[in-house]
Amino acid sequence: MTRTIEEKVRTALSPTHLEVINESHMHSVPPGSESHFKLVIVSAAFEGKSLVQRHQAVNKVLADELRNSLHALSMETLTGSDWETRNQSTFASPPCHGGSKTDA
Questions:
Q1: Tens digits of per-residue pLDDT, 7-18?
Q2: SS3 category, 19
Q3: pTM of the full predicted structure?
């Protein structure tokens, strides 16, 4: 799944920086799962777009994955100037607060 996401985002958005981070291990899923991802995408394709429009663009690129196997997707969608303003850093993901089906 990681490779598929990376290839689709690179092809559609030509990012200058891309991180595809599998965060499934932070959730109540079996070991080795690929169901929860964080994307950090820096692309000129986001210039002049609102945050909602940026996320819609990524959701469109990954529509099949979101429909079939991707449970959660966190995104940081940035322009080159956004990335520079943030000193090329990302936000830490919060811990999962969801429970497992095995929790009492």
A1: 999 999 999 999
A2: strand
A3: 0.80
Q: Give 102: exposed, middle or buried? Use CB within 10 Å, 0-12, 13-18, 19+.
A: exposed
Exposed e or buried b per residue across 16-44, where buried means at least 16 C-beta atoms within 10 angstroms of its C-beta: eebebebebeebebeeeebbbbbbbbbbe
Question: Mind listing the pLDDT tens digit for each residue in 38-47?
Answer: 899 999 999 9
Within a domain: 92: no
Residue 91 maps to a domain: no
Q: 29 lies in which domain range?
A: 2-85
Determine, yes or no, domain membership for 103.
Answer: no
The answer as to whether 75 is a domain residue is yes
User: Who contacts 89 (Cβ-Cβ below 8 Å, separation ≥6)?
Assistant: none
